[in-house]
Every structure is written in structure tokens, then in C-alpha cells.
Write a structure and sequence with these properties.
single chain; 299 residues; alpha/beta; TIM Barrel; 2 domains; 8-stranded mixed sheet
């Protein structure tokens, strides 16, 4: 299944210390326009697809969210006509702070289900969400509110205790001011390894509100092209022809770092101690371009 992770706004009722988008209150103007959203969804390929709407907090832009879900429902019907065997699913990622009581939780979940949402992912599992105002009682409300509804609902059991060293130093997380040597941001199987495997009907891509396409949610390695202006398949095929993503898909970010001149022993040491995401940040930076020379990489 092709997955498209789409933070449609940076508006949020929380202002979490670790947020890589620096999302927070008063940012409604960062929301993707309805016209651009329509164009982006219209440029998705036929085939099994999951669109994940995220933020920010999508429930803080409720009128826009309802419109986006309407567009996705129309797209689903269109794809079903084009290929009756394809699956088009919609996931909403939320902090779940709106679940102030069981009745309220059930009300919102019912509305999302009726608007075509297949999965609701409550992603407020960090200690920084707790510090921002989330509490476990709302998790309990969500579980109780979903009883007999049948919404595919993912809820944290509690809050993890990951420290500042565990988060990608982007957005508000830059304020942690953690030295590179102390970062430990490995995410297991790296997000970009199958980022553009569209030919196998398995891509994992990320968007911004301007239609740019990236290989991971940290917006590394921007693909050439814009999803507002052209089909996703065309953008991906262009990048596959470039060679770098083919190398990442086959051997991971470590192989690309070595190709760019970083010594293999340095690559292995950084990955072993800090993870592949830390290596990617150190070598390629936020732009997806090599920002340090091979002798500057910290061993």
C-alpha cells in the first residue's frame, strides 16, 4: 500500500517542546488551501493508498478538515470505479485532547467515522504532550467512547519518557540544544528505505502544504517536482532515474553517505551508537543535501 503522510496545518492547541514543525496556537494561516488540497489528492495514483491527515492538530481546523474528508471520499469513489480491487483508506492523526469526556469522545469519533475516516491514530504519547496538557483520562475516554462504534483506533497506553536526545533537532526541538554526539534518534527501519517503491505499490512519502514531496516526515530529500502541479507517479519515476533513491531503497542511508565520501568506519560507528536518522541529519542536514565534508563528520 502507498502511504502519504500529510501534515495539513501547523495550527495546534498544544505547543509541545519536541515538535519538529513548531506547531501551536494561532497558525491557521499555515493550513493548506482547499484548492491545493484538491489538486494534490487528484494527482495520487490508482492503487492501494492510505492518506494520513496530520498536523498540528487537525481538529482545530474543523471546517477545513470536514472539507478535506469530503474530497477524500470523492477520490475514493473515483478510484473504486477505476479499479474495483483497489483500497483507498483515510487516517486522521490527532492528539485526542478533545476527548474531555466519554460522550464527547464518542461524538467526535462517530462524526469522523461518518465522514469516511477508517483509522484514528492518537499520537500524543510523549512526556512533552503530557507537559503541554494531555492526560491519561482522555485515553480512557477514547477507549470507552469507541465501544461498539468499530472505529479502528490507536491509543497510547501512557506517556513515554524519551528525553531530548531522542528527537530529531528540527522545529521547536532545536531549543533542546543537544550536541550531535548526544543524539540517539534511530527509528529502527529507516523511513526512507522504501520511500519511493511505487513500482511495488509500496511508497512511504510525506508532503508539506505547498505540495512538496519528501522521503520522511522530517522533510529530508525533497523530490524534484510538486504534487499540486503533476502526478505523484511522474515525480517518483523522475527521482528513481536519479540513482540516489535506488541506492537508499537497496542499502539504506548509510550507503548514500558512503557514496558521498563519508568513510565507512565513520558511518558504521555513528549508526551503531546513534542510529541511521542521526547519521542522515549529520551528513545531509535539513535540506537533503550534503552539508558537511567527510572529514567533518563526528566519529
Amino acid at each position: 500500500m502507498n502511504e502519504l503522510y500529510f501534515p495539513v496545518t501547523e495550527n495546534c492547541n498544544f505547543e509541545c517542546a519536541h515538535c519538529y514543525l513548531s506547531a501551536g496556537p494561532g497558525k491557521r494561516d499555515t493550513t493548506v488551501s482547499r484548492g491545493d488540497f484538491e489538486k494534490i489528492i487528484g494527482n495520487l495514483p490508482v492503487g492501494d493508498t492510505r492518506v494520513i491527515l496530520s498536523g498540528g492538530e487537525v481538529t482545530t481546523i474543523r471546517e477545513d478538515l470536514n472539507y478535506f474528508l469530503e474530497v477524500l471520499t470523492d477520490r475514493k469513489h473515483h478510484l473504486e470505479k477505476a479499479d474495483r480491487f483497489s483500497v483507498f483508506s483515510v487516517e486522521v492523526q490527532t492528539n485526542g485532547s478533545w476527548a474531555t469526556g466519554i460522550h464527547r469522545a464518542r461524538e467526535v469519533l462517530t462524526d469522523l467515522r461518518n465522514r469516511g475516516v477508517d483509522v484514528v491514530d492518537v499520537a500524543s504519547n510523549s512526556r512533552y504532550h503530557k507537559e503541554a496538557g494531555m492526560d491519561v483520562e482522555r485515553f480512557h475516554n477514547l477507549r470507552a467512547g469507541n465501544r461498539y462504534l468499530g472505529v479502528d483506533l490507536y491509543i497510547p497506553k501512557g506517556f513515554n519518557e524519551k528525553s531530548a536526545e531522542s528527537y530529531f533537532p528540527m522545529g521547536r526541538a532545536k531549543n533542546f540544544d543537544v550536541a550531535f554526539e548526544d543524539l540517539e534518534i534511530g527509528y529502527g527501519r529507516i523511513p526512507c528505505r522504501d520511500a519511493v517503491s511505487l513500482k511495488r505499490n509500496q511508497s512511504d512519502l510525506n508532503l508539506d502544504t505547498e505540495g512538496n514531496v519528501y522521503s520522511c516526515c522530517f522533510r529530508q530529500f525533497k523530490l524534484d517536482g510538486n504534487l499540486i502541479e503533476e502526478p505523484l507517479e511522474k515525480i517518483i519515476n523522475r527521482y528513481l532515474d536519479g540513482g540516489d533513491f535506488d541506492l537508499i531503497n537497496r542499502r539504506g542511508i548509510s550507503a548514500l553517505a558512503e557514496k558521498r565520501g563519508v568513510p565507512g568506519d565513520v558511518v558504521r560507528d555513528v549508526v551503531c551508537r546513534q542510529g541511521e536518522c542521526a547519521l542522515c541529519f549529520r551528513v545531509f542536514g535539513e535540506s537533503g543535501d550534503m552539508r558537511v565534508g567527510k572529514d567533518e563528520v563526528v566519529a
